[in-house]
């Protein structure tokens, strides 16, 4: 990869890191709206909690983003930037221009994030498993008429 291209991407990453760090410094945890919870409606407490959790999630995302940028900048210093950290193949320039902090090729980008996905996604995205057990249960009777069963 050309030195000029790497210098351009490095400048872009440094600018993005500076912006993310400024956002992290400027972020404040939302304060509760009440001094006492004694006379608060539960929905008011829930709103405060939701605001706090949302801000915490945004801060965590910013922190993760900053770490990814720092890893990409370190790879530039080490001379390994532009090479997939999984397979060792060269990362296409188009991918690096679109996502300068990428350290893997497109094929291995999914493998890089596997451990970061919530466990609940496995259950939510799982397709229902059907078996022939229904026919055994139906033998005991059903509300279907004879014409429904012959379809």
From TrEMBL:
PROSITE patterns: ZF_DKSA_2. It comes from the Bacteria. Residues 79-107 form the Zinc finger DksA/TraR C4-type domain. InterPro entries: DnaK_N (IPR037187), YteA (IPR014240), Znf_DskA_TraR (IPR000962). A zinc finger (dksA C4-type) spans 84-108. Residues 17-50 are annotated as: Disordered. Keywords: Metal-binding, Zinc, Zinc-finger. PANTHER family: GENERAL STRESS PROTEIN 16O, RNA POLYMERASE-BINDING TRANSCRIPTION FACTOR DKSA-RELATED. This is Molecular chaperone DnaK. It comes from Lysinibacillus contaminans. The lineage of its organism: Bacteria, Bacillati, Bacillota, Bacilli, Bacillales.
